[in-house]
Design brief:
Layout (H helix, E strand, L loop, with lengths): L4 H11 L10 E5 L2 E4 L4 E4 L2 H4 L8 H11 L14 H11 L4 E5 L2 H17 L6 E5 L8 H5 L17 E4 L4 H7 L4 E6 L2 E2 L5 E2 L2 H14 L2 E5 L23 E4 L10 E5 L20 H16 L2 H22 L5 E5 L2 E5 L4 H10 L2 E2 L1 E3 L3 E4 L7 H18 L1
Parallel strand pairs: 3-15, 5-6, 5-7, 7-10, 10-11
Antiparallel strand pairs: 1-2, 2-3, 4-12, 8-9, 11-12, 13-14, 14-17, 16-17
Helix pairs in contact: 3-9, 4-9, 10-12, 11-12
């Protein structure tokens, strides 16, 4: 017998660690839409925190997963599988031609990138310290927490893992001044999502590349949220005409299927030999089949072209709302990673949006974060902004 909603909530209270505050129970999704337990329909401008970039239950991804699940789901990385090399070559061809390691999440991808930097540093002056940026967020493992600027995420988990220092984002002089004899790398997000939707300037990113070359440091880019088409390029760094030494990715890599990876420039490939790093579930036949379907859909359906067009549409609409509602202090973003600066009332606005059947996210510093599907239509943007207007009006 199917449990009632209240019975399911009781099971949740009894047996699930309460690490999230939540009310809705979602049971179905299609494109930009999701339905809750009672059949109520919501326009989703969160997409699982930029995971379902192609929309919920994209037919091509569903088909790839279904077919592969009936053939071979897992064989461990002790053996080749037919999709992994093909996927690595696809990522290399769409980025900087590097070598790829597959894992399961963004935190794992960033951990791998940190290990890469330390391993390279052990052979280049015994250096290990990594400079990170203010407002950054790199994950919730002990290492990626230590690399995250906001101390609230680290409360109760002391001592912090050593080896990370922080410099002001978009301030090249601050990064330069943080360099010591023990510095091995600089790690930044081209667009900070969780930290408040802050965009790097072209001057800053190009300056970092020059500075790293000058000081013999690695440039590590966290593209877990900004990558996979979200910012109007396959990867956001491509906006800045630079090439990093390593880059992490995850979230939308499998459009809902757990998938992460980091890639390093080919000349560093010899640092990793059998036994140096590993993952039980990284790059399984099932995960790789899903990810290949994602890349195929992005190309065939001209997803990035749509991102660029709809980005301008959404920014225009949001700036019109800014003129109407003083509660909105700023609208900023890149591609379809958009932040609306609200302030103290951001959580109230998020709740008001949910009452209007619009799902949105928040980010650091009182920011309403909008992450619509990359295939979003103008009609869906118009509807979302109409519902946001109603939510704003309810607060006023």
């Amino acid at each position: 017998m199917k449990e009632t909603f209240s019975q399911l909530l009781q099971l949740d209270r009894d047996f699930v660690l309460p690490t999230y505050g939540r009310e809705l129970m979602l049971v179905r999704g299609e494109g930009a839409w999701v339905w809750d337990y009672y059949g109520n329909k919501y326009l989703d401008f969160g997409m699982g925190i930029s995971v379902c970039n192609l929309g919920h239950c994209h037919p091509g991804v569903v088909q790839a997963i279904t077919e592969q699940a009936g053939r071979l789901m897992h064989c461990s990385n002790l053996y080749h599988n037919e999709h992994q090399a093909r996927l690595a070559a696809t990522i290399a061809g769409l980025s900087f031609g590097g070598k790829v390691f597959f894992c399961n999440s963004g935190a794992e991808a960033n951990e791998g990138m940190i290990k890469f930097a330390r391993r390279w540093g052990s052979r280049n002056g015994e250096r290990s310290e990594i400079i990170c940026a203010s407002n950054c967020f790199h994950g919730r493992t002990l290492a990626t927490l230590a690399a995250t600027a906001n101390t609230k995420y680290r409360e109760g988990f002391a001592p912090d893992m050593g080896g990370f220092v922080f410099a002001e984002y978009n301030n090249l002089d601050a990064v330069r001044n943080a360099i010591t004899a023990n510095t091995v790398a600089v790690m930044v997000e081209p667009v900070q999502g969780e930290g408040g939707v802050h965009m790097a300037s072209k001057e800053f990113m190009q300056g970092l590349r020059q500075l790293c070359d000058e000081k013999n440091l690695l440039l590590l880019l966290d593209e877990v949220q900004s990558g996979m088409g979200r910012c109007g390029h396959y990867f956001a760094y491509q906006e800045f005409d630079i090439v990093p030494d390593a880059m992490s990715m995850a979230k939308a890599l499998g459009n809902g299927f757990p998938m992460g990876a980091f890639t390093i420039r080919s000349e560093y490939g010899s640092l990793f030999a059998p036994g140096v790093h590993g993952s039980t579930f990284g790059g399984t036949p099932l995960a790789c089949a899903a990810s290949l379907a994602v890349f195929r859909a992005m190309e065939e359906e001209k997803v990035i072209d749509n991102v660029r067009q709809m980005s301008q549409c959404l920014l225009t609409k949001l700036n019109e709302l800014k003129q109407e509602f003083p509660l909105i202090k700023e609208v900023r973003g890149m591609g379809l990673l958009i932040g609306v600066q609200i302030g103290d009332k951001v959580k109230e606005l998020q709740a008001a949006c949910q009452k209007q059947h619009l799902l949105v996210l928040t980010a650091g510093g009182g920011v309403l974060r909008l992450l619509p599907p990359l295939k979003v239509s103008k009609d869906e943007i118009d509807l979302a902004c109409q519902r946001l207007r109603e939510a704003l009006s309810s607060l006023v």
